[in-house]
Design brief:
Helices cover about 40% and strands about 15% of the residues. The chain is of the alpha/beta class.
């Protein structure tokens, strides 16, 4: 892996920017392709003077640009996506374009330039509500929103490129990742939404009955998992692998845990709102494959991750992070 150049699409985003931090820390050369539709330049601003870092502002929908950027890389981590379920309901065509056609452009460029490994970031949303738990990689795909459907299409498209062209691709099905820099927008952003409201002395808002469950993974564990895929990807080429905590937590439990950790349980109680369309009822990862083939085990329990994130917010992390300044580039 030494002296490799790694392309991170969506590298100014939440997960992408944490990955970029880690890769540069390990002295890899990194190229970020991001159109800043959801990424934040402040996430990568501190790298702009690093000789091993290059920022390309543009979209995965720009086929010529993608082909040009990929010509100079050894490995691709494809994270660029429209990630919001609610936006996908309002803008399904845009969501499919970015998530599916954008992925097609990356796969074609990787095939043309014979890239050594492509890590495609899929999503647990491709499974839909659990038919059995824990959900392994053989669980049926039953996407329930345009976002989930677009990710399922991209997921299977990536597999088809392995099956048809022997493109060395690994499909990572990430469960609910949380941590610093996560935007508090969309269905998946319940943790930052809850924390911001609670620290502002406002009650967390729960859509539906709060009994819907998720599998939450702190971002540092997600980055470690991606590193392991980069290092041992040959074991999983052509396969999908779940990355999660393996622990099931209800939204109601989550709300009360955040209230407790913020020492606001005596002042605030959750309030309830109508359920939202396209929302999955139950998710929990079976991570046995990742454990067996990659040696991956999550190291940060939910309570510890929430403590870290609450401290980040209390320390002004969000206020310092949220301002967009990429117009100055």
């Amino acid at each position: 892996m030494r002296n490799r150049t790694i392309l991170v699409t969506g590298g100014a985003g939440f997960i992408g920017s944490h990955l970029v931090d880690r890769l540069l820390e390990r002295n890899f050369k990194v190229i970020v392709l991001d159109d800043f539709s959801s990424g934040n330049i402040n996430n990568i601003w501190h790298h702009l003077t690093n000789k091993g870092f290059k920022l390309v502002r543009g979209s995965v929908l720009d086929k010529e640009l993608v082909y040009s950027v990929v010509s100079n890389v050894d490995l691709i981590v494809h994270l660029a996506a429209q990630v919001h379920v609610d936006r996908s309901i309002l803008e399904p065509e845009y969501t499919v374009q970015v998530n599916t056609i954008g992925t097609l452009n990356v796969l074609e460029a990787a095939r043309k330039h014979e890239v050594e490994l492509i890590i495609h970031m899929s999503s647990c949303e491709v499974y839909g509500t659990a038919r059995y738990v824990p959900m392994d990689e053989k669980h049926p795909l039953n996407p329930t929103s345009p976002y989930a459907a677009s990710k399922a299409a991209a997921d299977r498209l990536a597999y088809s490129y392995y099956n048809t062209y022997k493109l060395p691709v690994v499909i990572v099905r990430a469960f609910n990742v949380y941590g610093p820099r996560q935007r508090d927008k969309g269905y998946a952003a319940v943790i930052p939404k809850f924390i911001r409201r609670v620290l502002g002395r406002r009650p967390p808002v729960i859509y539906g009955d709060g009994k819907q469950t998720r599998d939450y993974l702190y971002v540092d564990d997600m980055i470690r998992a991606l590193e392991l895929v980069m290092e041992h990807g040959e074991k999983l080429v052509g396969m999908a692998v779940n990355i999660g905590s393996g622990c099931e937590v209800s939204i109601l439990e989550l709300a009360y845990k955040i209230l407790e950790l913020a020492d606001m349980q005596s002042e605030l109680k959750p309030v309830f709102a109508p359920s939202r369309p396209g929302e999955v009822r139950r998710l929990i990862a079976d991570i046995e494959l990742a454990e067996r083939e990659l040696g991956f085990r999550p190291s940060i329990p939910l309570e510890e991750g929430l403590k870290r994130l609450i401290e980040w917010y209390k320390g002004g992390g969000y206020d310092a992070w949220r301002a967009y300044v990429y117009e100055e580039l």
